[in-house]
Amino acid sequence: MAQVITTQQFPYTYEGMDKKGQKVKGRILAASEQAVKADLRRQGIIAKKIRKQSQLFKSDKKIGSEDIALFARQLATMLQAGIPMVQAFDIVGNGHEKPAMQKLIMAIKADIESGTTLHEALAKHPLYFDDLFVNLVEAGEHAGALETLLEKIATYKEKTEALKKKIKKAMFYPAAVLVVAVVVTIILLIFVIPQFENIFKDFGADLPAFTMMVIGLSKFVQAYGLMMGAVAGGAIYAFIYFKKRSKPMRQGIDRALLKAPVIGPIMVKAAIARFARTLSTMFSAGVPLVEALTSVAGATGNIVFEDATLKIRDEVSTGQRLQRCMENTGLFPNMVVQMIAVGEESGSLDAMSAKIADFYEADVDAAVDGMSSLLEPLIMAILGVLVGGMVIAMYLPIFKLGSVV
After folding, report:
1. Whole-angstrom distance, CA of residue 158 vs CA of residue 84
2. Is the pLDDT score of 325 beyond 90?
3. Which residues pair with 11 in a beta bridge?
4. What CA–CA distance (Å, rounded) separates 130 from 185?
């Protein structure tokens, strides 16, 4: 009878000689270096060098939030259909198109086969399964309603991913167009404007002030372009570096985003939608309110709302009503506070939170579409000013050519 491997497996790279004396190298999953040597011996390979990799999956970055959402939906569907859990993991894992996701699912399956509970197996991979996911699965296992809870998790993940895509769409489109505009402008200044400058030298007339300004800008970019690019790259790197490590900086940026024109109201609505959706999912799963608010804080996506939610949690733990605590933060609109109050009074906090989430998710959709419609003509105007302005500057001297002749 084959022995079931119960220990966690890690990736190893190896180099060695096969039966024909040829050099071979590759990658293998095993529990230890001795297991790697034993496996290679069975394949007729004499290992010369074996090296353990630092991470469980070399292609970790290929696994995205949408893959975890799909996994939750597929697993919920399989269990609701009455398929045993181990078999469900086999079907979901082998059917996934990403090798990294397959390995992740199979690693969880191996833990389950060894007697580990599902939430404990998921908790071993915190990079992909956060506390909210693990806590909901644990609640489902304890209540004997794992299928129902996985269904709720899948719905929650799908809705939050859809909301994230909306926010990314709102910010990516104008940023991408402006980057293209800057690149086109730099190309014109470095390669095109100097050609016109050579032509204008033989005109025998003074150039218009606008043309001279553009030529001067072209010379400046040619002389200091590389330095400016290096400074800009260093500034961006420093910004990203300190943003990850400085909480005051993140607070300042998130607070500024919430107050920014156009994008600010969208960020506020998105944070409220995530707050309400997470609260509804956790509370409907039977998670105590104080414990649920800890997961809600991390799911808001904005450090200002995260800190406010943690403050709400601390106040609720002293016996205060959720409605009053939310009101004290000054972040939540009156409508949200009143709906939460109704939910508390009627004992349907999860249902009212879900209604708030539905309303604000739809509001974010409408706001993003409206912002896109507003920004399109604005971006076209910016492009026209940047590119069209330089074209006009280069053609102004040509209009004087007749008087010179």
Report:
1. 24
2. yes
3. 29
4. 44
Strand order in the sheet with 23-30: 23-30, 10-17, 46-52
Contact 342, 353 (CB under 8 A): no
Angle between helices 247-259 and 209-245 (to 10 degrees): 130
Give how far the C-alpha of residue 295 lies from the chain's centroid of Cα atoms, to the nearest Å. 18
Say if residue 56's pLDDT is above 60. no
Number of H helices, E strands in the chain: 17, 3
d(CA 74, CA 88): 9
Average pLDDT value for the chain: 82
Q: Give the phi and the psi of residue 201 in degrees, each rounded to 5.
A: -60, -30
Sign of CA dihedral 149, 150, 153, 159: negative
Is 191 exposed, middle or buried, given 0-12, 13-18 or 19+ CB atoms closer than 10 A?
exposed
CA-to-CA distance for 240 and 251, rounded, in angstroms? 14
Higher pLDDT, 178 or 170: 178
Tell me the chain's radius of gyration from C-alpha atoms: 30
Does the pLDDT value for residue 118 go beyond 70?
A: yes
The span from the CA of 224 to the CA of 229, in Å, is 9
d(CA 141, CA 119): 8
Q: How much is the pLDDT for 342?
A: 92
Max intra-chain CA distance, the chain: 100
Mean pLDDT (whole number) for 161-179: 77
- Find out whether 121 and 111 touch, Cβ atoms under 8 Å: yes
- CA–CA dist 90, 159 (Å, integer): 26
